[in-house]
Amino acid sequence: MAISISMRALPTFALPSEMRGGLRRTTSFGAVKASPSALPLRRRGVSPNITCVLEDVEVLRTSGKNAEVVRIGVLGASGYTGSEIVRLLATHPAFSVTLMTADRKAGQSLASVFPHLVTQNLPDMVAVKDADFSNVDAIFCCLPHGTTQEIIAALPRSLKVVDLSADFRLKDTAQYEKWYNGAHRAPELQKEAVYGLTELHRDEVREARLVANPGCYPTSVQLPLVPLLQANLISKDGIIIDAKSGVSGAGRAAKEANLYTEIAEGMKSYGITNHRHVPEIEQGLTRAVGSQVTVSFTPHLIPMSRGMQSTIFVQLSGGVTVEDLRTHLQSKFENEEFVVMLPKGVVPCTAHVRGSNYCLLNVFEDRIPGRAIIISVIDNLVKGASGQALQNMNIMMGWPETSGLLQQPMFP
Q1: What is the dihedral angle through the alpha carbons of 244, 285, 231, 308, rounded to the nearest 10 degrees?
Q2: CB of 142 within 8 A of CB of 76?
Q3: Long-range contacts of 361-368 (CB under 8 A, 24+ apart)
Q4: Which pLDDT belongs to residue 259?
Q5: Which domains does the chain have, with CATH numbers?
């Protein structure tokens, strides 16, 4: 039975004069569309947090009928990405968690695993095999790589699914087998999956039933590089990516290499020449230019819990300046809420996106003539995982893309 929100229960707001008429919708739940002329909230001079509430309330009020709550299932809720989904959903106006799975924690409450979520009214976790999907409209799948394919293939076709594992990111299943050391067990489903780098594939996501949520490194790398490659402003050759991530990117499983004494007061490279995000990055860049792109990519583990920086070195195309790169990225993301080009000379910092769904970018002139340095920072658990997953699900379910996602970064 669907749960309904009574319009009488909604708060009454007096819209600021600068916002009146700016929330035009063609609204029937499941197909909510923002006015194309509406700029991102942070660019209108209105507080994003209150505007997000106003926007969501306006969707409900103008729908002409009660809007149904979207019942959410989180598979793998006891991991970092699963718990982050739950944290973000706490402020969503219509998404409600009705199912959570965690095989090793079956029968436990999420608060017993993540005490910071003790205030949330949530169902106890169950094993996947015992899950009842009749009480669910949409699924966030936060299970480990290699375990997702058969589980998603067995789900009811009526469910919208965002998969946060790598199992459906690579279109070529032979590439999946090569990089993930096992045959893909749902190749027909792979053909259906849409790659969910939201700002670049929004229209495809809107029509999708199954979205493959991008990896964290590929998100930070592709957001600046794809537009520049498509505009032929940089060479597809000689791209070097020096990327650094906090420890939460490795997941919550106990691993000796991730013990405090192993990672504190130091930094180390890993996955040199063979990190599994390489084919995903190259797939996206190759798609952008229509011919094979090969990159040099080296990730590093740094002693912080969350955050990611990609420092990217590129060759400019003939006659192109660094200012051309800045101008193009500024134009590309001007109407995007979550991708921000910083003022000239300002260096992006992971501390300034912590806990948020934002990606901060900037471009700098290299001391080597004809080359540029791009810096991109995200929170690996939010824009690099759960936040982007919610962004995609909002689009798939017809909700404003920013719903539940306008938490500002935590600082210090």
Answers
A1: -20
A2: yes
A3: 361/223, 361/224, 361/329, 361/333, 362/326, 363/224, 363/322, 363/325, 363/326, 363/329, 364/322, 365/322, 366/313
A4: 82
A5: 7-61 (no CATH), 217-380 (3.30.360.10)
172 to 193, 210, 216, 280, 412: CA distances (angstroms)? 12, 17, 20, 10, 42
Handedness of CA 98, 410, 242, 314 (dihedral sign): positive
Which residue ranges in the chain fall short of pLDDT 50? 1-39, 43-50, 63-66
Amino acid occupying residue 378: I
pLDDT at 67: 62
Say if residue 412 is preceded by a cis peptide, omega within 30 of 0. Answer: yes
> Are 69 and 4 within 8 A, CB to CB?
yes
Distance, in Å, from the CA atom of 220 to the CA atom of 210, rounded to the nearest integer, reads 22
Does residue 368 contact residue 294 with C-beta atoms inside 8 Å?
no
CA 248, distance to chain mean position in Å, is 15
Cα 410–chain centre separation: 18
Catalytic residue ranges: 216
pLDDT given for residue 11 in this prediction: 36
- The structure tokens listed for 270 are 């890993």
DSSP 227-257: HHHHTT-B-SSS-EEEEEE-GGGG-SS--GG
Give me 12's structure tokens.
């009454």
Locate 309 and state its tokens. Answer: 């920086």
Closest CA to 237 of 227, 249, 225: 225
405, 379 Cβ separation under 8 angstroms: no
Instruction: Please give the model's pTM, rounded to 2 decimal places.
Output: 0.86
> Which residue is associated with the tokens 């940089």?
234
Element (H, E) at 71: strand 70-75
Give which of 281, 295, 264 is closest to 223, Cα–Cα.
Answer: 281
102 and 131 Cβ atoms separated by less than 8 Å:
no
Type of residue numbered 7: M
* Neighbour-count burial for 58-94, b at 16+ CB within 10 Å, e otherwise: bbbeeeeeebebbbbbbbbbbbbbbbbbbbbbebbbb
With vertex at residue 390, the alpha carbon angle to CA 109 and CA 145, rounded to the nearest 5 degrees, is: 70
Q: What is the DSSP string of 128-189?
A: GGG--GGG-SEEEE-PPTTSHHHHHHTS-TTSEEEE-SSTTT-S-HHHHHHHHTS--S-HHH
| Amino acid 39: pLDDT | 46
